[in-house]
Design brief:
Elements (H helix, E strand, L loop, with lengths): L1 H8 L17 H9 L4 E4 L2 E4 L12 H12 L6 E2 H9 L10 H11 L4 E5 L2 E2 L5 H9 L4 E5 L5 H12 L12 H13 L3 H5 L5 H6 L1
Antiparallel strand pairs: 1-2, 3-6, 4-5, 4-6
Helix pairs in contact: 1-5
């Protein structure tokens, strides 16, 4: 779990911010899985958490990460239960061991941060990090994941929403669903308690807030 937390916090640092001379307990798993599997490496943009590429995938993690994406791409309007996702990864031809499930999912979440939505007990999580993954490990059946991609006219709409909400321009100069939704969730969470709990609203308004 400490290693997963470091993936989210220190992905831009060598050894995920660990001191290689002190060798904390999680260092061995970092070296044997993340470094050996080319999941954390130095790129032209510095140290990054990345997917391995064909021809440079010594631990054969790329097929597993591709399979996770294929599962999510089957229906982008559908949420996938993380417990079901883990169960499928246990099956042939992958046979991923239980200890690796959350670590590989964390890598996948970091790499695809801008197009993945996580839900806990059907509620949208505006932030996902080490604390959330601790709960995922304990009760994966309470969590779901969904691929969120936009294109065409919907992309133009989200660009306009981003401008109206003054959210700035993403690195790739194109808005996505989560770029707009997350600030709205933060705004909603900061509303007064009365606004969040009152029932003196229309059914439509209550369903939104």
């Amino acid at each position: 779990m400490r290693l997963i937390e470091r993936l989210f916090k220190y992905g831009s640092q060598p050894y995920l911010g660990m001191d290689p001379d002190k060798k904390p307990p999680e260092m061995s798993m970092y070296l044997s899985v993340l470094r050996a599997g080319r999941l954390h490496r130095e790129t032209k943009q510095g140290w990054r958490v990345v997917q391995p590429v064909l021809g440079d995938d010594p631990e054969n993690f790329l097929p597993v990460l591709h399979h996770i994406m294929l599962i999510l791409e089957k229906d982008t309007d559908r949420r996938v239960k993380i417990a079901d996702l883990f169960a499928e990864l246990r099956l042939p031809p992958f046979g991923v061991r239980d200890g690796l499930h959350p670590l590989l999912l964390a890598v996948f979440a970091v790499v695809h941060d801008r197009e993945l939505a996580f839900y806990e007990n059907e509620g949208f999580l505006r932030h996902v990090g080490g604390e959330e993954f601790l709960r995922i490990v304990k009760v994966p059946e309470s969590f779901e994941i969904q691929l969120c991609r936009i294109s065409g006219i919907r992309s133009v709409l989200f660009d306009k929403l981003s401008a109206i909400l003054d959210l700035g321009v993403p690195d790739d100069k194109q808005s996505d669903i989560l770029h707009v939704v997350r600030p709205l969730c933060v705004f909603a969470a900061q509303l007064p308690t009365y606004v969040l709990k009152t029932r003196r609203l229309s059914d439509h308004a209550i369903s939104i807030h």
